[in-house]
Amino acid sequence: MEEMIKAVRRFHEKHDFAHNNGHDPFYRMMLMMEEVGEICEALTKGKENLAEEHADLLILLLGNCIAFNIDIEEAFWNKYRRVMEREARWVGGKIRVTDG
């Protein structure tokens, strides 16, 4: 994970995101929504670029962590410990792991 974060940080530095509104939270959220839409399109249209679209989303997510100063590894493990304590249940014919 650390190497991926360093690579995304280099990408941000190359394009000077910090000084060109590339760290604007609303802009970044719109980009993430766009990528989620592209993942959905790959699934529904049977496109072969599903892995690439997930990589795009991961790059944006790691970029968010850089822009918003989030330690994603720490946040991941904190959340993981909590979700592992939850029980699964069926909702609308699908399995869900929720806190309620």
TrEMBL record:
<dbReference type="InterPro" id="IPR021130">
    <property type="entry name" value="PRib-ATP_PPHydrolase-like"/>
</dbReference>
<protein>
    <recommendedName>
        <fullName>Pyrophosphatase</fullName>
    </recommendedName>
</protein>
<dbReference type="Pfam" id="PF01503">
    <property type="entry name" value="PRA-PH"/>
</dbReference>
